[in-house]
Write a structure and sequence with these properties.
Belongs to the bacterial ribosomal protein bL28 family. One of its GO terms (cellular component) is ribosome. By secondary structure, this protein is of the alpha+beta class. The chain is about 35% helix and about 30% strand.
């Protein structure tokens, strides 16, 4: 399983460990990923996603999973999140048209 947030696209970064003697060795910085269950109000179901804590805070700030998916571009979302976005958008369009 890749260490990439399904909502924000945040992945690992590469940098250096720097010792007191200024020796540099490569290291990786991994995002703080959590397995969470988020509720979709439009679909009325819960969805399990692997999300970074930063992404989770962003979702709460925007006003929920449905608002986040509608406002976020497809390039950042995982395949599972893009399918979820498509379903949410269909459901919202049907409810607006009715």
């Amino acid at each position: 399983m890749s260490r990439i947030c399904e909502l924000t696209g945040k992945g690992r970064m590469v940098g250096n460990n720097v010792s007191h003697a200024n020796n540099k060795t490569k290291r990786t910085f991994l995002p703080n990923l959590q397995n969470v269950t988020l509720m979709s109000d439009a679909l009325g179901t819960s969805v399990k996603l692997r999300v970074s804590t930063h992404g989770l805070r962003s979702v709460e700030h925007v006003g929920g999973l449905d608002n986040w998916l509608v406002k976020t571009g497809d390039d950042k979302l995982s395949l599972k999140a893009r399918r979820l976005k498509r379903d949410v958008r269909k459901k919202l369009d049907v409810s607006v048209a009715a």
